[in-house]
Amino acid sequence: MVATIILKVAICAKTGGNILISAGIKDVKNNLSRLLARVKIGEEILITERGRPVARIVKESNGDKSIRAALGPLVQRGLITLPGRSILKDRITAVEVPGKPVSEMVIEGRR
Predict the structure, then answer these.
(1) Domains plus CATH for the chain?
(2) Which of 10, 31, 86, 111 has the most CB atoms around its CB within 10 Å?
């Protein structure tokens, strides 16, 4: 038996060469991979909740923006603060603690 999954979307409009597709939150949750495949080819997805628009998924430009550059406007508006330095992973050392390993305690807690 072959199962067919129907994606409930409505093509709302064609905007500047891009097709705008409307999909409810449940449909987006259940079909995210399919919708992202459509976004990759240039379509836009309008996410709705009870028929009202709440978000839009659009294809990301291929610009080579660093994360710091992308977050720059949020830093300027004072909404976020970037870390002053990177984590020095080579200086992190394991600490010996007496008693059972945490993994054993987690396993015991699950019983």
Answers:
(1) 9-57 (3.40.1620.10), 67-110 (no CATH)
(2) 31
